Each structure stands twice: as C-alpha cells, then as structure tokens.
Request: fold
Amino acid sequence: MATMNPDFAYEDLLPLGHDETEYRLVTNEGVTTTEVAGRTFITVTQEALRKLTEEAVHDIQHYLRTSHLQQLRNIIDDPEASPNDRFVALDLLKNANIAAGGILPMCQDTGTMLVMGKRGQHVLTEGRDEVGIAHGIYDAHTRLNLRYSQMAPLTMWEEKNTGTNLPAQIEIAVDTKHHDQYQLLYIAKGGGSANKSFLYQETRAILNPQSLLKWLEEKLISLGTSACPPYHLAVVIGGTSAEHTLKTAKLASTRYLDSLPLRGDAATAHGFRDIELEAEILNLTRNIGIGAQFGGKYFCHDVRVIRLPRHGASLPIAIAVSCSADRQALAKITSEGIFLEKLERDPARFLPDTTQGQLNDEVVAVDLNKPMSEIRALLAKYPVKTRLSLTGTLVVARDLAHAKIKERLDKGEPLPEYFKSSAIYYAGPSKTPEGYVSGSFGPTTAGRMDSYVEQFQKAGGSMIMLAKGNRSTAVTNSCKKYGGFYLGSIGGPAARLAQDCIKKVEVIDYQELGMEAVWKIEVEDFPAFIVVDDKGNDFFAEREKLVSLGKRPE
Reply:
C-alpha cells in the first residue's frame, strides 16, 4: 500500500510575531516614495543608511534598554540577593548613568559591530547598502571615544589594527514578508562575550529534562564570569546546521527572537521558545553560587531557550550570552522615515536611595603603594570572595605587552622591575576624551594571559594580578607555588572606573603599542575581590567541585 505524502506546508524557520519595540524618529531625510504599476516603492539613499548607522552605534555604546536597567534595580531590591550581587548591580547602574552622559562609553571594549538587515521587496537603495552602513560605523568610531579592536591579517602571522574598527560583520537579506520595510539589528559584541559563544555536538540521549539540565549546569559553570554577568543567556537546541544554531543563539541573546511561537508544529517544523524550560534554567543559574560575579544568586538576568528542527543524526546545542554591556538596538526604515529603537536616556531614575554601606559586606582596604611582600601578607589573611578596595599604583599590561615581556625573558633578560613591584592590571582603555584622565578603562578577560603566569611568577613578577573572569588550573597552581594572588574586578562598569577611580595615567613602556602599551595608573577605591589565593584556593573551582559532588553551594 502506497504511503501518502504529507500536504505541502511552509513557515519561516524562525517565524517572528508582531514587533512591540518602541522607536524614535531619527530623520525622514533620504527616504522618498515612488508609485510604479500600482505599487509604492521606498527609495533610501546610502547617506541615510550612513546617518542611521552612526546614530545607532552612538546609542548602543551609551544607552541601555529600559528593561535591562529595571532588571539591575530588581537585584538591589531583592532581599535574597547577596551583598555581592547588589554591589555589582549598583556599580553597573552607576556606570550606565555615567555612560548616558554621551562621553565615556559603558565598556572600554567597544566591540565588533554586527549589523543584520532585512530589506523588503519594495525598498530600493542607491549603491551598496554595506558601504553606507560601514561608513556610518567608521564615522562613529573616528568621532566618538570608542576603541579600535579590529586586526587586519597581513600574513598568517602578522596583524595590524585597522584604526577604524572596520571591517564589521554586515549581513543583508531579502525580506519577502515585510515588503515595505527595511529592518535592521545593530549589535556591538565585545571580545569577552564573543569568546563565550559555544557549540556542542550531542546525541538524542540528552533530550530529556534530567540529562539536559545536568549537562547545562556543568557548561554554565565553565562559562564563568569573564564575559561580565549578570548575563542574558541563550540556549539553542537543535538546528538544520551547526552554523545556524550558533547564529540563532547570538540572536536569542539579544531578545531578537522573543516573539517566536511557544509550541512546535509537525507540518512546518518551525523553531519555538520553551518558556517553561527557560524558567527551570534560570532557577538553575540562581543556585550554582557564582552570582553577579563573585558569589550570590544573579548569574543571569534571564534565559532564552529556542528549540529548532534537526537532522536525525545530529544534535547541535549552542550557548551564547549578552553581557552587562547589553549593546544592541533595532532600527527600521519605512515610508515615514528612519527609526531607531528608543533606549533609556535617564538611567539615574533606577538608582536607589540606599547607601553604599547598606549594600556591602566587610571591605578590606589595600594600599597598593606598600611593598609587594606586605600587600601579599595582607591578602593572605582573607578567604577567596573577600571584597577589596584598592588605592595606589597599578601597572596595566595585556596581550601584546605580555608577549613582548615574554620575549625578553626567553632571551635571558630580567623581568622589568614594574612587573615585580606592582600589581598587574589586565586592561586596555578606549580613547581619552578632552578633560578626562582616561577613557573608559575596565578589566579585560584574564584567561588570555594564563599561559604567561607561571613563567612570570617564577621570575618574581605578576604576584598580584587584576582582571575579570576565571583562570585555569595552571594559574591556581602557580599562585600556590610562588605565593601569588589573582583579584577579580567587576566586569562591565568601565565608565565608572574611569570617572571615579582612575586618577592618573601614563605610558611607561612599549609606547608603540598604542592602547596596548604598558601603563602606570593611580587608582582610588578601585573595587576588587580575591578570586585565587596563595594557598591554591580558587573561587570558581570551588563552584565546580560542589556541583560535581551534587551539592548546591551556599
């Protein structure tokens, strides 16, 4: 007996519902309409795309969504939040308030620009859309106090900074559903959160609640804090290809896919959101003990879970985050003009009246100008997770400076004295605005410097390190062997650190490296936490150990 084929049915793989975004009019210049054969066509100039893009880049570097700010305030108001949770949330709100002044960007890593456009069939443009968008990115980064992060490969081994933050990732597609609109999504993705996008190839055996949640718990702990929580977490299960699964996770982390259906369909096999599983995973993140960065409840603001169709022999799973610098905005071009998502211009209204003292546990003051032996002796008295307030001299050195100093050691030359006498801060500033001591100046991801630590500590340097995120076992072992410490700083509030904590900045070595040079900076009341101590204790490793034993950390 012949098997009947199912009826043909089609739906978008990711069918989005009604757009609830509140927009503001940027301009109606550069947009005209023409009637042809009974149809209205919208013509958009390349200059209009350029202007929209420059405006979008400015806004996402200085303003946040109202909903994100409300989530930060909710942490402060939650009696179950830890003092560390509330401290981080307050610092991020202060940072948002400073960034909203339009001078200092909210994060020093102003990121790679990602632009996704969907152009309706009745929207016509002059020339290449990508060129106009790229020019707008160029305008923003050369006129504003933003950092250039893009490295041009000259050979397989040689690179040079482009000095414009170009190229950007620009993807333009045809939209057959909204024929009279040009829809765009602008994202600034810093290296920290971009490095925390993961793809896994699993099997059908994981598709049950117990197995999946146990698997996710392990992966989320390994995610750590280097991408600056509290996160907007996205988990995508399934996918027609591994590559599409990863892209979907990135979009879900920006809440772009929030209007997906909530159930699947056998005929079309479209993707959908599972809001019940989202709630379960959110609860899981609140019990793993990492919290908003150094212990507590708020590892994540929220979770998005997307289920996609899959090939029967493949089960890709992707995890992605949008960090505390939650930088994205939607835009659209219609016959009425050019519109950009309305972001919050008054973040100060989310700041609490609560005093600093009501929010915090004991804070240990550390004088960084004392001899290194005395500073280490002080830190040795306190357990991991202890909150510190640093005042004095920090030496700033990151990737390229570490590579240069390693070359010196490899040649048999001594370690520079500043690496022995001072705490080393892994950071890099953005451009310094006129009248400011520095540009936004926050911690970078510590893990990139892990391979240098043992060699440097053996030579008597890097005895106190300051950055964000978790470290490898090799770093913990080295600190135990040589008596070193790793201090975690709050990832995210780079504008606040620049305005309130950094009092003096000067280049002391490798000036030719520009923003990657070795800097000496003077800080005051700079927030930090003990993450790895001289006894081999590691805050993040303790989280992993407790979970592996099936116990929930306090």
